[in-house]
Specification:
- It is a single chain.
- The relative contact order is 0.16.
- The C terminus is likely disordered.
- Helices cover about 85% and strands about 0% of the residues.
Length: about 375
Amino acid sequence: MWPLYAAGFTTAFGAHGIAATLGGDTEDAVTSLLVLGGLLALYDGAEVLLKPLFGALADRIGARPVLLGGLVAFAAVSALYVAADSPGWLWAARLGQGAAASAFSPAASALVARLNPAAKHGRAFGSYGFYKSIGYTLGPLLGGVLVWAGGLRLLFAVLAVLGAAVAVWAALAVPAVPPLPKARQTVLDLARRLADPAFLAPTAALAAATGALSVGVGFLPVSGRAAGLGTVATGAAVSVLALSAAVVQPRAGRALDDGRLTTRSGLAVGLLATAAGLACAMLPGLTGVLLGAALIGVGTGLITPLGFAALAASTPTERLGQTMGAAELGRELGDAGGPILVAAVASLATLTYGYAALALLVSVGGALAVVGRTGATVAAGQAE
């Protein structure tokens, strides 16, 4: 499991280490909020297109080779920007990193499910999410330090070395998990499975949480800079978001496995906490940045392990890669859509209104989950 944790750390550190520094001190490459939103969404746009394909490929040939290939590609495209170092190549490198993460992220999730019994999926995904959140935590902080010390080239160089090291580790330690035989599946069968509420509900929650997380990492530094904070300070403040998620995720996973928390109630509370964090981000100054980061992290920490555990529980084992890839597609739609929505609204009004727009959407999802849970409880009582 440790190389899988390292793979999760790598994608989180790379994605958010760069994203958190783009809005702080890269005026030569980021000339407007729309450009910032585009760069934040580019990484995730590649994942939207490719994660379902790589997830299905993992089911066909095995998750391990897809994991290794993605890590090697991530290291290669990170080294590309180190050699080129221009705003145009920054767009190309971010696109390439997103494509590489499209391979090893769903493969790692499928391996987490395959290498652990169903009764421990909550703990397994909670631990995987914990180490991924460590990457989110250290990404903005160390990313800010590395950019301050040597610019974006130094940060990309560190990512190239990290990706290569994790690829070697995974090649040596991750066992080969052969693909399982599976019945023929038609397009209609796939559509029915993906339209099932057992898939849609956790995926929608994951998408909302990921969109808020991306906005927090990308735009809270902008709010911090407006409050007079430097690059390192904004990176440290935004790290509160990922640290909160890291603390919550293992506890949420254990509570689910022990029966102290249900998927529906946990997802509802997580969505409402995330919406509250976006609302707090509207407050001016350091207070708004810290409160917003902490609450978004708590909400994400609740949603992530519960969502993935629910998906694993409702999916045939031989289709785990496909389901995880499709779920990651939903997450990346949120990851790309969140920054675009906030940037578009901020361009027409202010960043405060951008936070408000996303907070409204997320809070509606949380309210619907609460209403659905209440309605189910009432229906069960009437049946009794």
